Amino acid sequence: EVQLVQSGAEVKKPGESLKISCKGSGYRFPSHWIGWVRQMPGKGLECMGIIYPGDSDTRYTPSFQGKVTISADKSISTAYLQWSSLKASDTAMYYCARDNQQDGFDIWGQGTMVTVSS
Amino acid sequence: EIVLTQSPDTLSLSPGERATLSCRASQSVNTYLAWYQQKPGQAPRVLIYDASNRATGIPARFSGSGSGTDFTLTINSLEPEDFAVYYCQQRRNWPLTFGGGTKVEIK
Fold first, then answer.
1. pLDDT value of position B53
2. How many residue contacts between A and B have a Cβ separation below 8 Å?
3. Which of A26, A32, A108, B19 is the most exposed, fewest CB within 10 Å of its CB?
4. Who contacts A9 (Cβ-Cβ below 8 Å, separation ≥6)?
5. Which chain B residues are closer than 8 Å to A110 by Cβ?
6. pLDDT grade, residue A79 (50/70/90)?
7. Cβ(B36)–Cβ(B84) under 8 Å?
8. Which of A60, A6, A45, A42 is nearest to B37 (CA)?
9. B13: burial class by Cβ within 10 Å (0-12, 13-18, 19+)?
10. Which residues neighbour A93 within 8 Å (Cβ) at sequence distance 6 or greater?
11. Under 8 Å CB-to-CB from A42, ≥6 apart: which residues?
12. CA-to-CA distance for A102 and B92, rounded, in angstroms?
């Protein structure tokens, strides 16, 4: 079965760092782009950036550039999204999704809820 | 950045009725447009890609049309499980962008 499994929910304080993960299975992980999508409470979907695990080529949506880091380790079929200093406004559900090019984001992780509160 | 505007914000319909959702792009995206469905507490799932192609396992009552800047998602004869939020997404230019969503609710 082709799937993406994300790490569990996190509760953090402002200023803390965080790295969440997304593990792929059932397909050639290095050969497909992985995207990260933010959904703030009660709001819509925003693409944060994408990474090609095969060579770690990464693209960021301008509004997220410099605020998060996207990385991948193809040897363990895992992509990551990390923050160095969280803010309350980072509270959201974060999804990873396989970007199958013209087929769209065709496989989604279950989401990781990140709550940032003092 | 290409802005996608979806309308209406909310569509109130009864099971069995037809739903017509609109997505308008701020500049041409050719047919590089996808539609997603999201139910409460679930991740989105792709319904339509390349404007008019149904994704694997998507029922035939879902159809997409359009090109350039104007796109439509049609759901013929709404089933109870179709009441959800629908998003369009373009991949013509980076960054990839989503529309704000249309909620299809039970009337």
1. 97
2. 62
3. A26
4. A112, A113, A114, A115
5. 43
6. very high
7. no
8. A45
9. middle
10. A38, A39, A41, A111, A112, A113, A114
11. none
12. 10
Distance (Å, whole) CA B5 – CA B48? 17
Max Cα distance, chain B (Å): 38
Choose among A44, A106, A108: nearest Cβ to B98.
A44
Q: Which residues does B86 contact at the CB level (< 8 Å), separation at least 6?
A: B6, B21, B35, B36, B37, B38, B47, B73, B101, B102, B103, B104
Mean pLDDT for chain B overall? 97
Per CB-CB distance under 8 Å, the chain A contacts of B1 are 62
Flag if A102 and B36 touch (Cβ within 8 Å): no
Q: Which token pair is B89?
A: 């997404």
Rounded Cα gap, residues A39 and A42, in angstroms: 8
CB B31 within 8 A of CB B50: yes
